[in-house]
Amino acid sequence: MATIAELAGVSKPTVSKVLNGRSGVALETRRRVEALLREHGYRRPDKTPASATLEVVFYGLESHLAIQIMRGVEQVARRHELAVGFIEANGRTAPGRSWAEQLLARHPVGVIAAFSRFTPEQHAQLAASGIPLVALDPTGEPMHTIPSVGATNWSGGIAATRHLLELGHRRIGVVSGPPDYVAARARLEGCRAAMEIAGLRLDERLVRSGRFFFERGRDFGLELLRLPHPPTALVCGNDLQALGVYTAAWQLGLRIPQDLSVIGFDDIDNTRWCSPPLTTVRQPLTEMGTAAAEMVLALAAGETLLQPRVELSTTLVVRESTAPPAGA
Amino acid sequence: MATIAELAGVSKPTVSKVLNGRSGVALETRRRVEALLREHGYRRPDKTPASATLEVVFYGLESHLAIQIMRGVEQVARRHELAVGFIEANGRTAPGRSWAEQLLARHPVGVIAAFSRFTPEQHAQLAASGIPLVALDPTGEPMHTIPSVGATNWSGGIAATRHLLELGHRRIGVVSGPPDYVAARARLEGCRAAMEIAGLRLDERLVRSGRFFFERGRDFGLELLRLPHPPTALVCGNDLQALGVYTAAWQLGLRIPQDLSVIGFDDIDNTRWCSPPLTTVRQPLTEMGTAAAEMVLALAAGETLLQPRVELSTTLVVRESTAPPAGA
Questions:
Q1: Contact with chain B for residue A274, Cβ under 8 A
Q2: Do A244 and B273 lie within an 8 Å CB cutoff?
Q3: Residues forming beta bridges with residue A114, ordered by sequence position
Q4: β-strands A148-151, A315-317: how paired?
Q5: What is the residue-averaged pLDDT of chain B?
Q6: CATH of domain A47-151+287-312
Q7: How many CA atoms does the CB half-sphere of A23 hold within 13 Å?
């Protein structure tokens, strides 16, 4: 720490402030110190007590998936006698220190960022503090410097589309997630590939892209189902969009699956609580939580990960929202 | 601690073990020490460091409500720079120490038991350790020794039933939660009271009671809707049961609300993701989480609670699943 202080031309307490995420350090100084800590591969000395906690940061909007992930993280944490911390980083501005500053000050054993986008600065702070970070399915820009856990999104798109093709559908539409989300893009490209492998072509007029919300599914569903030649089946970017399509169909008096087949993605609890139960591509969220927790603990133990990116398999779960097209 | 050890006729390390929830103390000895700690109003001396965490224990089955509660707890925790711990106590048997033992050993600032039933022994352990405990809507037996936060369930039952009566319904059925759950009972009795105030009588043949599951709502819904004189409206014990009734109606080809009005209880996210959107009685879960966190922190600060039981208001949220009965 003395070395870093000397190189940065600051006092040791200033380096300590940067390490502990405390305020009172000019942004430029902080960046210089962080860069030096990284360059020199600084690791928190073992005597600094880490609080016996694994913290999971969720980005608010996808929090309906949170419980399944927390379940997986908790199984690993319990085995290691660690507490599991829950943070929702939804950009609320609250008085006092931000969630990120508080998180750093607590020195958790490790941090799992679930569906969250850490800012490069937050990421640098964590790295500088020696707190391991693993990303769980970053739907945004992949930050290749962070180890991460995801699911095989592209294969999931293939499986969903093949299922519809086998039922006899040809006019297949896609309600996709945001085009700048890698996971959403992979699912959409999987659909396109499955069509092309079958000698067909995905009709771009039947594709819509937007946020992973119920409302987007409903609005895109209404748009697509009101076309002069509407699709007979829709593959959706996630389950919430699929539930939105259910509402669109209901508003237009269309029956699922008789008039329209629908496939979701994720397999959240809600897929079994709708009528009819939803055919969907399951992401193994609990297992992804487990894998992320194990990776972050391996990093905390100073191990090198054999694979910085792990992808768990998605599986098609066929329920009652898919059937052959009318007249097939 | 020396006094307690002497009175209990054990060594100081044994008292310490009991305080810290460690194993290796005979059950009877543990109980004797715990009773003495309680009698003598033992409080953990300030120098014992509590980990800066508020822990929330959920009982697995109601965990779809968890995120809203966690949100409320987290708002308070962040203001106090505390981490929020998440535990799912679903009776899994795992190797090593149980979640309760681990929880005790971590010395959180406080514990919120959400929809969980702590065993009397676990409760005694917490009390003996000086860790404050607040129950969040205990749906089971109320343990009057624990401060608790709930919602006005009875008034919610009244509001739901009055709404149906005002629409013109007279044959109102109830899919209720378990009869031994105080909250479920309060909702049912609220319905009954509203009927009687209106000079009507709740037909017991239209009442079913069972667990707060989707499947119970579906099965009871099928039973009630297949009666020779089926109800024109159903008040449900929670939203999951209401979604089950949706599926029952769908299976029987009945339309909601034209052929059947349905009201839920809780206002979970899913109520907006079904077709039609569900009319329900809102429990202010986030606010309940906030209130529980504030109570547990007050206890941790050595304050006496003015009210050991706080009930927050429920409110009827009218959406599209309720309408006048056919022919009205």
A1: yes
A2: yes
A3: A58, A136
A4: unpaired
A5: 87
A6: 3.40.50.2300
A7: 7
* Burial group, residue A21, by CB count within 10 angstroms (0-12, 13-18, 19+): buried
Q: Out of A94, A214, A274, whose CB is closest to B79?
A: A94
The domain spans of chain B are 1-42, 47-151+287-312, 153-284
- Of A114, A69, A264, nearest in space to A176 by CA: A264
Mutate to test the interface with B, among A56, A275, A319 (most CBs of B within 10 A): A275
State the sign of the Cα–Cα–Cα–Cα dihedral A120, A125, A127, A132.
negative
Q: Could you say which DSSP state residue B149 is in?
A: E
User: What's the CATH number of domain A153-284, 3.30.70.1250, 3.30.450.280, 3.40.50.2300, 3.30.250.10?
Assistant: 3.40.50.2300
Residues of chain B numbered 240-259 and touching chain A (CB < 8 Å)? 240, 243-244, 246-247, 249-251
Q: Of B115, B216, B270, B273, which to mutate for an interface test with A (greatest number of A Cβ within 10 Å)?
A: B273
* Interface contact flag, B71 A88, Cβ < 8 Å: yes
CA-CA distance, B93 to B70, in Å (whole number)? 25
Question: Does the pLDDT value for residue B148 go beyond 60?
Answer: yes
Domain B47-151+287-312 shares a fold with domain B153-284:
yes
Is B274 within 8 Å of chain A by CB?
yes
Tokens (6 digits) for A125 = 């702070």
For B92, nearest residue in chain A (alpha carbons): A75
Residues 132-161 of B with CB under 8 A from A: none
Per residue in A52-111, pLDDT (tens digit) is 899 998 875 466 688 888 889 999 998 888 999 988 876 555 566 778 888 888 889 999
Order of strands across the sheet with A83-88? Answer: A309-312, A148-151, A133-136, A108-114, A51-58, A83-88, B83-88, B51-58, B108-114, B133-136, B148-151, B309-312
Residues 6+ apart with CB under 8 A from B110: B54, B55, B131, B132, B133, B134, B293, B296, B297, B299, B300
3-state secondary structure of B133: strand
**What whole-number percentage of chain B has pLDDT above 90?**
52
pLDDT at A127: 76
Note whether B86 contacts A105, CB cutoff 8 Å.
Answer: no
Q: Is the ipTM of this complex over 0.85?
A: no
Angle formed by the axes of helices A12-19 and A27-39, to 10°? 80
> Which chain A residue is nearest to residue B80, measuring alpha carbons?
A96
Give residue B48's pLDDT: 44
Residues ≥6 apart with Cβ < 8 Å to A160: A187, A190, A191, A194, A235, A263, A265, A281, A316
CA distance B275 to B278: 8
Taking every pair of C-alpha atoms in chain A, what is the biggest distance, in angstroms?
78
**Cα angle for residues B163, B168, B171 (degrees, 5° grid):** 95
